[in-house]
Design a protein that fits this description.
Layout (H helix, E strand, L loop, with lengths): L4 H6 L4 H6 L18 H10 L1 E5 L5 E6 L3 H8 L12 E4 L12 E7 L2 E6 L1 H13 L5 E5 L15 E7 L3 H9 L11 E6 L2 E7 L7 E7 L3 H12 L4 E3 L2 H4 L2 H5 L16 H6 L5 H4 L2 E2 L32 H5 L8 E7 L1 H9 L20 E2 L1 E4 L5 E11 L4 E8 L8 E6 L17 E8 L5 H6 L10
Parallel strand pairs: 1-11, 12-14
Antiparallel strand pairs: 1-7, 2-5, 2-6, 3-4, 4-5, 7-10, 8-9, 9-10, 13-17, 13-19, 15-16, 15-18, 16-17, 18-19
Helix pairs in contact: 4-5, 6-7
């Protein structure tokens, strides 16, 4: 019998120490090649021409069918389902009874009793557990993400999933469709024709650019992809490799990697017994300069991640009592940090010295599944957490998505502590290094002006 996460914790292991020394490596995007041309050119394409994102392999897909599916969603999400109509999608944000975010993902309502969740394991596991334990009249079909390293073995999913984004996206969409396609509202679903088959669509944008997310049965993957590439050639369509895909969130402002708030609390013991010790929650790597012996210090609430506007108290849900007690004005808020170029130069120059600073990988600098770097004010006080760092070719600067104290103003200078204390942990992604306090300027979120002006009003737009 496989060990559960709870059984692992019952041995007395400190979850922080365990996760900080995990040997599983950083979060990866399997199967899709790292680059098709080069990642800089691919990043420029979603701003200047058009890009084809291939999302077919890195997300868990969970189908929920039955008369209890909507109630399950309502009971576990901070979001209201009062206006969750067939043919629309929602960002799904679940919390624990203590009000800590478990994960997130996208829920597609395909029918009155039919939903699909797509996202990382945190949200999928939470939904699956409550569906099984809660007595809901719902049937689940789980399609796990492709293994990090397939090692040449055949790969198949239930659905392929792609996005066509960028200023030329709609010309490509209508050419491949063979005629006009209705420009639905943000997060509304429709259909279009590709290579002789009808596929589902969602008005969406990973990088804040206009376009569609599309999906269909995996058997049609090659045929659909080829048709899109042929139609897009005259419009400058680029394929996006896995290197350029991950940092697309810097420009749209989504933090994909909070630590799930599930490792403590007696009320979550059964959930931890349900989770395997070698699964996402038990084996993922925790990285960064923010270090405390208490895993609770890594938990985040919806406001800290920019999801405060999602929280609706028009329904009973797990975590409602705790969230109602929060002083929302006192919570940290999500921002962009623009890292100082002179300090970035120090990091790269040090690679030619005996004791370098931790290398800042491009375009994504995270060296763990969950990145937590300390943000300091001018007096050295911790005022926040930098949670997702990397480089934007479109903005020509190093950026990170962060959550900081509410009194830190836009335009203020802070410092991000880059590198782990003591020369680093035993993670496979880390070699001995020095730490550096990197100057950074607090900026709006999303950082991209295009995203702030053109993206749908909501959690990614700047209300700052």
């Amino acid at each position: 019998m496989n060990q559960s996460l709870q059984q692992l914790l019952d041995t007395g292991v400190n979850p922080v120490e365990h996760l900080r020394n995990s040997q599983i490596g950083a979060y990866t995007y399997p199967v899709v090649p790292p680059e098709f041309t080069n990642w800089r050119r691919e990043m420029l394409a979603w701003r200047e021409t058009a890009i084809l994102f291939d999302q077919s392999h890195h997300m868990v897909s969970l189908s929920l069918d039955g008369p209890g599916a909507l109630q399950l969603i309502s009971d576990t999400a901070v979001n209201s389902v009062a206006n969750f109509r067939v043919g629309t999608a929602k960002q799904y944000v679940p919390t624990t009874s203590a009000g800590h975010v478990v994960g997130d993902g996208i829920l597609f309502r395909e029918g009155e009793e039919s939903f699909i969740f797509a996202g990382r394991y945190g949200g999928a596991n939470w939904l699956a557990y409550h569906a099984e334990r809660g007595g809901y009249a719902v049937e689940l079909e789980r399609d796990d993400r492709t293994p990090n390293r397939p090692f040449g073995k055949a790969v198949s999913r239930k659905h392929w999933r792609m996005q066509i984004q960028g200023p030329n996206a709609w010309e490509i969409i209508e050419k491949v469709n063979g005629g006009p396609v209705e420009k639905l509202k943000f997060f509304h679903m429709g259909t279009m024709n590709i290579a002789g088959e009808q596929v589902r669509t969602l008005r969406h944008g990973m990088a804040g650019a206009p376009g569609l997310e599309i999906w269909g049965p995996y058997e049609g993957y090659d045929r659909v992809r080829e048709a899109i590439l042929v139609a897009g050639a005259e419009f400058g369509l680029e394929q996006c490799g896995s290197r350029a895909y991950a940092p697309s969130t810097f420009e749209s402002g989504w933090i994909p990697s909070p630590v799930p708030g599930i490792y403590t609390g007696e009320g979550l013991r059964d959930y931890r017994n349900w989770l395997p010790a070698n699964g996402f929650e038990g084996a993922s790597s925790l990285a960064g300069s923010f270090v405390t012996p208490y895993i609770d210090d890594y938990y985040l609430n919806p406001w800290e991640l920019g999801y405060g506007g999602f929280v609706k108290f028009d329904h009973d849900f797990i975590g409602r009592t705790a969230l109602e007690k929060l002083d929302t004005d006192a919570q940290r808020r999500k921002v962009t940090l623009v890292w100082h170029p002179e300090d970035m130069t120090k990091i790269y120059a040090s690679q030619f010295e005996d004791e370098p600073y931790l290398f800042f990988e491009q375009p994504l600098a995270n060296f763990g599944a969950w990145q937590y770097d300390s943000v300091l004010d001018a007096h050295g006080k911790n005022v926040g957490l930098s949670l997702y760092a990397g480089y934007s070719e479109n903005e020509k600067c190093a950026l990170s998505l962060a959550t900081i104290d509410p009194d830190i103003e836009i335009g203020a200078e802070v410092k991000v502590v880059w590198g782990e204390p003591g020369g680093g942990t035993q993670k496979t992604t880390v070699i001995p290094h020095r730490q550096l306090e990197v100057r950074a300027t607090v900026a709006p979120l999303p950082y991209s002006t295009v995203s702030r002006r053109e993206y749908a009003a909501g959690w990614r737009t700047a209300a700052l």
